[in-house]
Amino acid sequence: MISTQNGEAFGSTEHGVWYERICLLDGKTYRHELPLTLESFQQSYERMRSGVVIQDAFPTLAPQDRDGVARAIYSVRYYTSAVG
Do residues 21 and 7 make contact, with C-beta atoms less than 8 angstroms apart? Predict the structure, then answer.
């Protein structure tokens, strides 16, 4: 398992990668399973965190998978900027 400082974590599974985050609004942990290798996820994740739009950072993910990742990232950014 790899954790980040934003309440996010990810790791490999038999069929891909799991990605989870703690929602800053409700305190619950949400997990998404994604059909990527761990290396591919890490590269795409870093690209997205650096400002690349999610469609370009994760071009092989289905829209519903990108949506799960995007909601986690953007809710963290929104909450941080709204509160901070």
Answer: yes
Cβ atoms of 23 and 30 closer than 8 Å: yes
User: For the chain, which residues make up each domain, given as ranges?
Assistant: 2-83
Q: What would the two tokens of residue 8 be?
A: 């996010």
* Residue 39 CA neighbour count, 13 Å, CB half: 0
pLDDT digits (tens, 9 = 90+) for 26-62: 778 888 888 999 999 999 989 988 999 989 999 999 8
pLDDT tens-digit series, residues 61-81: 988 888 877 766 544 444 444
> Which is more confidently placed, 6 or 9?
9
**Contact, 32 vs 68, CB < 8 A?**
yes
Angle between helices 38-49 and 63-83 (to 10 degrees): 40
